[in-house]
Design goal:
Elements: E1 3-6, E2 8-11, E3 14-21, H1 39-68, H2 70-83, H3 86-99, H4 103-119, H5 124-145, E4 159-163, H6 168-172, E5 179-184, H7 192-200, E6 204-206, H8 211-214, E7 220-224, E8 229-232, H9 236-257, E9 273-278, H10 284-289, E10 295-299, H11 313-327, E11 331-335, H12 362-368, H13 370-383, E12 388-393, H14 399-418, E13 428-433, H15 436-440, H16 442-445, E14 451-454, H17 456-464, H18 482-497, E15 501-504, H19 515-521, E16 525-528, H20 533-541, H21 545-555, H22 561-572
Parallel strand pairs: 3-4, 4-5, 5-6, 9-10, 9-16, 10-11, 11-12, 12-13, 13-14, 14-15, 15-16
Antiparallel strand pairs: 1-8, 2-6, 3-7, 7-8
């Protein structure tokens, strides 16, 4: 008799295959001390294990870059940095030489110290470094003990992977030709494994808590990544039901592909722009194949991550130029460097802060590091000659900040022109609206900027005073709350009054529950992950803007999220 497990749907789709258990090797060991005359050989043993781990991680990194792109492969650059970090290596060698610890024991003691420090920091980026240290240390320890770490890239038959969790190095090795899906005991929709599963388009369910105990190797299993269901040992009837569902999913994908070249129009012939968010030029294939009409957010910080020094002006220019040329005249909105908060760069030596999301980050940091900022602005201005560039400043709270940033842009533009460098004259310059103060005085900002782009990921957490990374207050992360809808309306209305446009580049822009509301609010540009563009285009084609305007009138008078969602369901069900 089949058994149904419930978890969190991390990646849509249906997979039916046999269980492959990704079991961790037993890395326990005897002997935590060594003799005096064993010190040198134990140090050599430790160093050899580190070197071999480097070889393995480099192979995994290169595999990840070729399959899921450099943005996801960058995490292994961080792993390699750990292996080269004297602050990590020296205590291990000292433990062997000065305290006569075995290589395995000294590694584990040092690992535990670093993990404790990172996990105790009030900073999500630094907490994630604890996972890097654990992952790297496990691989080195396995080398010391002569054990083999599971290698998902060796899988050569169709399977569903079942595991306690999948590490970054595990997920980077998944080959979607053979790995049809995966299920874990732990994790959530924003965990690394979940994000990677969506990039690979592999159905996944996480957070089941019990899957490793509920299945056996070789047993048949069904994964419904949309519903978050796992069916263990299904009968013939259940298999047929889910094979039919899988076929419908594939049919739906094929139907969506027919919309690639269609305009983004509503039933009452209102046109909006559907754009995509990207991190690197390597993301462009997905943008083009999904029919996006531009880039609504180019996150330039990925150019700066996974490296030991600031990218040069020339390197940045080539990256921006590649995107602009590929888009061939379609708009490309580039966000200037946005680090701090949950994104840090080791070579910038940013201060530790109690609340980094509200601290020294984004435009606040770049205005204070003008050489860094001017280099990026020059690269962008030079690239403007190759396409339809729009520049956007992040984390703007006051008009003074915008004016300072724009003044630097104008200075660099004039310098380049004096040097005889071709620069476009009509570059639109806008800001991200992610701080409530900017939304509240959007009418004043609209007189100064060329456009707004609403960053809902931050705007929601700042409006609700709820850290979106904190599970204890995650219930307050409410994109449909009337308070947020009112702020969005203020921004859109202010821009339209001045003849300007407003886009949205947060997760909300591609949310099927939010799209009707945003259409009714008058949003001009919806920017989302490339894989969501065709679904949004189809949804918009079945809506009338006039009806959605009436929906919004009622939604703005609601008292809570539940009332708003009930209204959305009521209005959209009439279609």
């Amino acid at each position: 008799m089949s058994k149904i497990l419930k978890g969190i749907g991390a990646s849509d789709g249906v997979a039916i295959a046999s269980v492959y258990s990704l079991e961790e090797p037993d890395l326990s060991f005897d002997g935590d001390t060594i003799e005096e005359d064993e010190k040198d050989s134990e140090v050599e043993r430790f160093k050899g294990a580190f070197n071999q781990a480097k070889v393995e991680i480099t192979k995994i990194r290169n595999h990840a870059e070729s399959t899921v792109g450099p943005e996801h492969a960058a995490i292994f650059d961080a792993h390699l940095l750990v292996l080269d970090d004297p602050e990590f290596l020296s205590p291990i060698e000292d433990g062997i030489r000065n305290e006569k610890k075995s290589a395995a024991q000294s590694l584990c003691d040092t690992r535990d110290q670093f993990v404790t420090i990172f996990e105790g920091m009030d900073n999500e980026y630094m907490k994630e470094r604890a996972a890097d240290v654990k992952d790297v240390s496990k691989r080195v320890l396995a080398q010391i003990l002569g054990k083999e770490i599971p290698t998902p890239s060796n899988i050569s038959t169709p399977v569903v992977i079942v595991a306690e969790d999948l590490s970054p190095s595990d997920t980077a090795q998944l080959d979607k030709e053979f790995v049809k899906g995966f299920v874990t005991n732990v994790g959530g929709r924003t965990s690394h494994s979940a994000i990677m599963s969506r990039s690979l388009e592999i159905p996944a369910v996480v957070g089941t808590r019990e899957v490793t105990d509920a299945v056996t190797v070789g047993q048949q299993i069904i994964v419904d990544g949309g519903a978050g269901d796992v069916i263990v040992d299904p009968d013939d009837e259940e298999i047929q039901v889910y094979e039919d569902k899988a076929a419908r999913v594939e049919e739906d994908k094929a139907a969506l592909k027919k919309l690639v070249d269609e305009p983004s129009k509503t039933m009452d012939d209102v046109t909006v722009e559907l754009a995509a968010n990207i991190g690197t030029p390597d993301d462009l294939d997905g943008v083009v194949s999904n029919g996006a009409e531009g880039i609504g957010l180019y996150r330039t910080e990925f150019l700066y991550m996974g490296r030991t020094e600031i990218p040069s002006e020339e390197e940045q220019y080539e990256a921006y130029k590649a995107v602009l040329e590929k888009l061939d005249g379609s708009p490309v909105v580039v966000r200037t460097l946005d680090v701090g908060g949950d994104k840090e760069l080791p070579y910038l030596d940013l201060p530790e802060e109690l609340n980094p999301f509200l601290g020294y980050r984004a435009i606040r940091m770049t205005l204070d590091n003008q050489e860094l900022f001017r280099t990026q602005l020059r690269a962008l201005l030079r690239a403007s000659a190759h396409g339809n560039l729009k520049i956007m400043f992040p984390m703007i709270a006051t008009i003074e900040e915008f004016n300072q940033a724009k003044a630097l842009l104008v200075e660099e533009k004039n310098k380049l022109k004096d040097e005889g460098v071709q620069v476009k004259d009509d570059i639109e310059v806008g800001i991200m609206i992610e701080i409530p103060s900017a939304a509240i005085i959007a009418d004043q900002f609209a007189k100064e900027v060329d456009f707004f782009s609403i960053g809902t990921n931050d705007l929601i957490q700042y409006t609700m005073a709820a850290d979106r990374m904190n599970e204890a207050v995650s219930y307050l992360y409410q994109p449909y709350h009337p308070a947020l809808l009112r702020l969005i309306k203020m921004v859109i209305d202010a821009s339209h009054k001045e003849g300007k446009w407003t886009g949205m580049c947060g997760e909300m822009a591609g949310d099927e529950k939010a799209v009707p509301l945003l259409l009714g609010l008058g949003l001009d540009e919806f920017s989302m992950s490339a894989s969501s563009v065709l679904k949004a285009r189809r949804q918009l084609s079945g809506l009338k803007k006039t009806d959605m305007e009436k929906l919004v009138e009622s939604a703005l008078e609601c008292k809570d999220t539940e009332e708003v969602l009930a209204l959305v369901d009521e209005y959209t069900s009439r279609v």
